[in-house]
Design a protein that fits this description.
Bound molecules: D-malate
CATH topology of the largest domain: Rossmann fold
Shape: globular
CATH class of the largest domain: Alpha Beta
CATH architecture of the largest domain: 3-Layer(aba) Sandwich
Radius of gyration: 22 Å
Number of domains: 2
CATH superfamily of the largest domain: Alpha/Beta hydrolase fold, catalytic domain
Largest sheet: 8 strands, mixed
Length: 399
């Protein structure tokens, strides 16, 4: 089942006399989010074909914070239990502006036949629902509520997304790298993770990742970072080397920002404060994708744009500070011998061009270097099959 979040804007006609989203409208939103999720997958046809209907037996909603007209709410859902004739879904509504959870719902469904008699959950429905759990989880780490995908079992690979993105960047790899435990968190302040108080830094992101691994009981993982995710991966190696079983560096660089780039970060932060995430999306999108991707995969481009728009401005601004102040990781490169490393460039990437990536790979003892044709800065989304295969091949070779 698609685990992607679904968003709705609160309209004034859904609000009560005090201007808050009405409790009945909440219920409707939860229902619409479930319909939308099904529509993105097999649709109601899945139930019809099996001759059953999911009837709501019990609904429990916890209203935790207010939602006002104009607020955008992000709904996520997972299956928390499947019985013989029933299943339970948990839903969460988060205010995208500040990452606050405004309500949670738990619904118990019973599958009934056309006469209304409870009937076993059909196999097709059961398998759809059980993949929905995906172990999409939320963990509290260093004061941040971190949303993540945790799929599969075996040795672990930790995916670290770039700026200003979220874990959805890795959706193809998380879906397909069977035989591995795929862990993909949203960094603090980005995607669906909250932004706690504190100085923004690459170190803070890295500490959160280690906190996630600790809570999941993972001692060692292959760390796979894209761009800012690569900067963070370098910090993980620098301070938590024994936790790193391998390194995959995609469209990233080891150098710190130049003075000019640092000023650019401050300008971007000011633009985000003045004009919101839209200004960031407008500036970044043409740089993130190869020109041919902008034409070939407009749906993916639109999804990335929607993801950037949904990123709370404080999360964007704090990432910009962390990017601006990140350390120079070049001295680390020659010390990476002993850590199997794969470096992946996008042939049409202008942010971290392939020739720079090649030079970085050459500075890492034993590193393998691959250029993904037809991709810009985001090979995992622009050329998902090639990128997943490249990663899978590297993983297979690990001792
Ligand atoms: C990213 O994709 O994470 C950013 O392009 C990193 C950067 O701006 O340095």
């Amino acid at each position: 089942m698609p685990s992607r979040a679904i968003e709705f804007t609160v309209y004034p006609d859904q609000c009560d006399a005090w201007g808050h989203l009405n409790q009945a409208a909440f219920l409707q939103f939860f229902e619409r989010a479930r319909w939308e999720l099904l529509a993105r997958g097999p649709g109601m046809e899945m139930f019809r074909a099996a001759g059953v209907w999911p009837a709501v037996r019990r609904a429990t909603i916890d209203y935790l914070a207010q939602a006002l007209p104009g607020d955008v709410l992000r709904f996520t859902q997972e299956t928390s239990a499947i019985g013989r004739t029933s299943f339970t879904m948990k839903q969460t509504a988060v205010r995208t502006g500040d990452g606050v959870t405004v309500a949670t719902a738990e619904l118990l469904f019973v599958c009934v036949d056309p006469s209304g008699k409870p009937t076993p959950v059909p196999e097709t429905v059961r398998s759809f629902l059980s993949t929905s759990s995906d172990r999409s989880a939320r963990l509290t780490v260093n004061g941040a509520s971190i949303a993540l995908e945790d799929r599969g079992s075996g040795r672990a690979i930790l995916f670290v997304h770039g700026y200003p993105l979220g874990r959805d960047l890795w959706r193809h790899q998380v879906q397909h790298l069977d035989g591995w435990r795929r862990i993909a968190p949203d960094l603090r302040g980005m995607g669906e993770s909250s932004l706690p108080e504190g100085e923004p830094s690459i170190r803070a992101y890295a500490d959160d990742l280690i906190g996630v691994l600790d809570l999941l009981g993972v001692k060692r993982a292959v760390v796979c970072g894209l761009s800012m995710g690569g900067y963070i991966a370098f910090d993980v190696v620098r301070r938590y080397r024994p936790r790193v079983a391998g390194l995959i560096l995609i469209t990233t660089r080891a150098e710190a920002d130049s003075e000019e780039a640092r000023q650019g970060r401050d300008q971007s932060a000011a633009r985000a404060a003045a004009s919101g995430a839209e200004a960031i999306a407008d500036a970044m999108l043409p740089r993130l994708f190869a020109p041919e991707s902008l034409i070939r995969i407009p749906g993916t481009v639109a999804e990335v744009r929607a993801g950037i728009l949904a990123t709370p401005v404080p999360g964007i601004r704090s990432a910009l500070v962390a990017l601006r102040d990140r350390p120079d990781s070049r001295p680390l490169l020659e010390t990476l011998g002993g850590i199997p490393t794969l470096v992946v460039a996008g042939a049409a990437d202008t942010i971290t061009p392939p020739q720079e990536m090649r030079a970085m790979a050459n500075a890492i003892p034993g590193a393998e270097f691959v250029v993904v044709e037809g991709a810009g800065h985001l090979p995992p989304l622009e050329r998902p099959d090639v990128t997943t295969d490249t990663i899978a091949r590297f993983l297979r070779k690990l001792p």
